[in-house]
Amino acid sequence: MKIESGKNPADQKQDNHLQDMRRLVLRSNMKKIINYFIRRKKILALQKKLIKTQIRFIRFMEAKVRTIESEKETAINISSKGIEPYLEEIIWEILSDIQLRANTEQSEFLLSKLPVFKRQFQNPILIAIDRIKNFFSRR
Question: Suppose 108 and one of 35, 76, 114, 121 were both cysteines; which one would form an S-S bond, judging by CB atoms 3.0 to 4.6 Å apart?
Answer without folding.
Answer: 114
